[in-house]
Amino acid sequence: MLIQNPIRFISAALFVVSAILNLPLYAQKAGKTDAIYSGLPWYDQNGKVVSAHGANIIKDKDKYYLFGEAHSDTSNAFVGFNCYSSKDLYNWKFESIALPVQASGKLGPNRVGERVKVMRNQKSGQYFMYMHVDTLGYKDQFVGYATSKNITGPYQFKGSILFNGKPIKKWDMGTFQDKDGTGYILTHGGVIHQLADDYKSIIAETNKQISSGFESPTLFRKGNTYYFIGSNLTSWEKNDNYYYTATALSGPWTSRGLLAPKDKLTWNSQSTFVLAIEGSKDTTYMYMGDRWSYPLQLSSATYVWQPITFSAGGISIPDYIQSWTVNTSTGEYASKKSDIKVIENTNKLIKYKGNWKHLSDSISTSRSATRGNAFSFTFKGIQIGLYSLSLPDNGYAAIILTDKKGKILVKNLVDTYTKLPSSTMVFLSPILPKDEYTLTVSVSGLKPNWSDKKKTNYGSTDYNISLDKLIIKE
Ligand code: DGJ
């Protein structure tokens, strides 16, 4: 937690961001996305980037509802909590700003609202939204709540949830609903609070602090075991998330180590929720994490959603599955088999503008850090994706996809920075009518960069972007 605006960056960024993002994006038609793709922008039915971070999902009747923080590209101020719906967990329809910025007060202008979670109270049928409320400098945190009769809102903000008449003065929070419908508030450090039957107050501290860090608390149950996942404290930077298990929420909690292989930084993400996708044959437990991208959290922060693997040794996300499918009727998941054509960075049909370094170590890649340098590729087909070698000195790549008349269909800035080098897909276009298109990717001259309250600097050291390969679907 704890962030301060890098003012110098923001003023330079604003010019480029507005130049790049002012046009509407291509509307993704419902039913068109065919899998869960981690680490790249998703588009809703209006062609806007899906903005729902620190999120959770609840199933209501035959639909899944995703609640998360809406973001802007200019500051960390609360801009509302968004609600999206989906039947397949791939295609997200924007439903509402379920809780907008309030006219004044604790969730009014220039405040922080994060880690929104929604649960349905089974007795009253009402929907309860819980969140971290704070000042912009993260100095007045508490757990707040809001209620609504309808799942999509509008939710009425009620202020702080109280325990013995006092607020819970913690920042990162989460929720957990047990099989018997009892609701719990989780806070950083691993503290668990039991909600009253009506979900309007807290009646017990079920579990005391387990660990000094443990932000983004995420709890789920499989059988008689509770799994409690959390992150280290590194502001918006990713780290190796870890977990505990117990057979009762009151503990004792046993430390079980890391959720993903060491130094993979939880596949460049921070936990927020685990969704149990229960079907007729199986249950897939889907880890939901955020790949933050400060300060361009609207355009460039993405989602890392991965199936959790269970074994006698515990839980794990042993590999990064770039794209996978889940059958919401049977509950089974599978890696997505791709029918794509690969265009390597050395392909003669790729047009490079300006000076680029063409490197071929373990990965063949082309790199440049000079603003305005670009590459473009014209193809016939229905979809194009970009793989990039993300590195600690990489910045934002400006993506423009045009049709053969030059009309812009998609514009976005994608983040190609990571502390830990990795070659992953960072952009995938919506599925388009079969035709001729041109993808142009340029060095934006922007990079993710910020400092926390202790003046610790985070983020990239340069503006490089890189091209490993393009993939096209014909
Ligand atoms: C990490 C937290 O988990 C996020 O929710 C957010 O508060 C950031 N810190 C802010 O730096």
UniProtKB/TrEMBL annotation:
SUPFAM superfamilies noted in UniProt: Arabinanase/levansucrase/invertase
Coiled coil: none
UniProt entry tagged with the keyword Ubl conjugation: no
MF-aspect GO terms: hydrolase activity, hydrolyzing O-glycosyl compounds
Pfam family, one: Glyco_hydro_43
Keyword flag Hydrolase: yes
Keywords linked to the UniProt accession: Glycosidase, Hydrolase
Any Gene Ontology biological process: carbohydrate metabolic process
CDD domains cross-referenced by the UniProt entry: GH43_Pc3Gal43A-like
InterPro entries linked: Glyco_hydro_43 (IPR006710), Glyco_hydro_beta-prop_sf (IPR023296)
Family under the similarity heading: Belongs to the glycosyl hydrolase 43 family.
Matching PANTHER family: GLYCOSYL HYDROLASE 43 FAMILY MEMBER, GLYCOSYL HYDROLASE FAMILY PROTEIN 43
Name under which the protein is recorded: Glycosyl hydrolase family 43
Organism (species): Pedobacter frigiditerrae
